[in-house]
Amino acid sequence: MAKKVLVVDDEKLIVKGIRFSLEQDGMEVDCAYDGEEALNMVKEKEYDIVLLDVMLPKLSGFEVCQSIREFSSVPVVMLTAKGDDMDKILGLEYGADDYITKPFNILEVKARLKAIMRRTARKAPEETRSKVVEAGDLRLDCEGRRVSIAGKEVNLTAKEFDVLELLVFNPNKVYSRENLLNIVWGYEYPGDVRTVDVHIRRLREKIEANPSEPRYVHTKWGVGYYFQQT
User: Fold this and answer.
1) pLDDT tens readout for residues 98-137
2) CA gyration radius, the chain
3) pTM of the predicted model, to two decimals?
4) CATH of 4-121, one of 2.60.40.10, 3.40.50.2300, 3.30.450.40, 3.10.20.740
5) How far apart are CA 174 and CA 154, in angstroms?
6) CATH topology for 132-227?
């Protein structure tokens, strides 16, 4: 089945180029040219991934991403101005899974989108571990890719889920930020370890009653992160 992609940018030539290239690879592409239109389309239709520019009319890419995260965990990749580290960090803060800087190489865009969709489409039944794991109030459903705390579902991004799943299935094993970056994002990922810190912090804000005194995702200072129910 064709992967469904939503491309959001107010520069119509860029959208046209991306759309043509993705359709050549057999993907089904919808386009939006402002933030409001994009948000409405995500509400009305299920997509496998959203490619979202930061600078948009009506609603910014950050606002769109934040709103999407209130009801969906669809992977979001943000397009940011070259070298603007603050945009990248803000994008991750608002729930983006990845970012690509402009000007970009369309082959890189396709490779990054495909890599994320491969990881989030998720594995044959034996690989999904077809398990529900419970640790205290935390419940992790690997097949449904859902997490709940004390019976209340928590909306995680694709990457937040991947990080938590890895840690939960390897309790007490300490992963350095570099390890997590390589395992969850892949060796080809051009970002840095701050990406991991942002995701861990946002994960704690969602699953911990008190993020500064975590019950599940712990820090081993100077080494990395690990999962332990306390």
Assistant:
1) 888 888 888 888 888 888 887 776 543 444 444 788 888 8
2) 18
3) 0.61
4) 3.40.50.2300
5) 24
6) Arc Repressor Mutant, subunit A (1.10.10)
